[in-house]
Request: fold
Amino acid sequence: MTAAEVDARARFARSLAREAGALARRYFLRELVYSAQAKGPQDWVSAADHQVEALIREELASEFPADSMLGEEDGGELGANTWIVDPIDGTINFVHGVRYWCVSIAFVVDGERHIGVVYDPSLDELFWAVRGGGAFCGDAPMCVSSCLRVEEALLCAGYVPRHPLGDYLELERRLHEAGAAVKDMGAGALMLAHVAAGRFDAFVEPHMHPWDALAGLLLVEESGGRIYPYPGAGGVAAGGAVLATAPGIFDELFRLSRYPAF
Reply:
């Protein structure tokens, strides 16, 4: 795929993320009525998720019919050129009226991240990156934080019930004992975007699905951060462990994570 073809997709993805976010926001504000259901323990989905994903799928199919799409809610397939989408990341926040959720759109070519877009409709912030071209919030370049010490870090540790609780609590204990301030804001893609913007110093989660991780990981890479290799051995569809940090604290956080060596 040529650079011009990637750039055309990046422009379209930024516009599409805003359009999808505007629809999601109408549901969030209850201008459009919806109901929510549990897919599993504290794992929520709503009509809003499905409708926003349907909008994204329709627009992508119209503009780039040869591309594949994999969405969190309604599936799809992986191809050579694939869009990987979470229509509303942070659904648990969304359905409870908490303003920490986002639209996440990634584009991968032969499994490699090329475009990442994360849109926060609540604050109207559009985070985006193209491989090799840097990362931006709107038109402003982003850079990860200059933090050099874990004991001075504000970091996020994501948790969902499919993670073994004991392992997660031990990880969080190690992070606290190392002196870090540890939060979980409930939307992994947006937390990664905030690492890229230098607001959080790091993000760690034992496993993330590709629709939650891919866009945000490219943002962090293109903002000068360091990441643990993603996906894992199972490939893109299987996802993997996530660690994304300011470069000055990566080595110590990798040690604390106890992830396999790479």
The chain is about 35% helix and 30% strand. The radius of gyration is 17 Å. The longest helix spans residues 3-28. The mean pLDDT is 95.
